[in-house]
Every structure is written in C-alpha cells, then in structure tokens.
Amino acid sequence: ITADIIQPIHAGSANLYSREYFELAKSALKPGGVMVQWINPGLTQIYPIIARTFAEVFPGAQAWYNGSLVVGSTEPVNPERLARTWRSRSKNRSS
Questions:
Q1: Can you say how many angstroms the Cα of residue 76 is from the centroid of all Cα atoms in its chain?
Q2: Which letter does DSSP use for residue 2 in this model?
C-alpha cells in the first residue's frame, strides 16, 4: 500500500495520517505486505507526530530517503527482499 498524494496540511487530510488509517492499512496487508507512507520532512511540527504514530502501528518501521518515506509491514522490513520483489514484478509487467 502506498500513500503519498495528499499533504497533512491540506484540509480534510488528517484522517489519512491517523492511527485508525494506519491500522486499517495494516489490516489490509497480506503476510509480508508493505505500507509505504510519504511524509514531508519539512513539516517540522507535524512530521514527528505522524512518524511516531506510524511506528506505533508498524513496530520495526523504517525511515527511507532522508525520512520522507516510512515503511512498515506485518513482519520485519527486509529492504533486500523488497528490492528483489519489486524488480521481479517490474520485469513481469514489461514482458
């Protein structure tokens, strides 16, 4: 699951950065599935709250790309496994 379109400062977007939303996303993941949430690190007052909430729902979450992406799963996040999976799926789509 990816979420990156709406910034938390936009009207009506708060629900997309809530514990309830992250829990709903987690419940939709298949075993080994991944949730990737973009957070604008420039939002210095809001960023720590969103990142902490995400990490509470996804224990073992990781911050990637200078913290602009937080990545969580129902299992420990393994970047090498994710890279292999994405490469494999990209090859299948281009075939």
A1: 13
A2: E
